[in-house]
Amino acid sequence: MKQTSVLSAAIALAALAAAPLEAQTGPGDMPSARMVRIGFGGGMTVPVSDAGDAFDTGINGQAYLLINLGSLPLRFNLGYQKFDLKSAVTSAATGSTRIVSGVAGVSIDLVQVGPLRPYVTAGLGAFNGKDDVEDGPAIPDGLATSATKFGIDGGAGVALRIGRLEGFVEARVQNVFTEAGVVDASTIRSVPVTFGILF
Q: Which helix (H) or strand (E) holds 8?
């Protein structure tokens, strides 16, 4: 009788313990369902079009704030990118360009497949660019003279659920609208490829 009572108590405790575990793995507690999330990432940025003639492939770092309001999933990015200027642009001098950006937009999930969550994102914001050239002539006016310009940003990515976290990889296209300067064009276009983690 005593053994039966102990066994019954053990089964009851196991059932109570299983209930929260089941709740934790339900769709309501999936990482993408949380109202507020933060993330960090980094990777490389590939300048394309006319920007590819002026800049070498650069690096990027990103910080993210995601706010899930149901039908309006907001996304805020704070970004840092750095490119080396090609010697043809700086007349054989050494130099680099850094771009600090703040972008606000949306991040929309597509159909989830198991632990994989594909998504698309789009936004607009401000991009501040500045050149640092050593032993060379001054850079012409444009984005490269520590100016802040308007830009748009959009792309796609996929997140992989790892417990209560998500790892992700994404690629975006950024267009910064500026006067012709270091890059002889009305826009500076680049493709940041970023790997990171969402909490």
A: helix 2-24
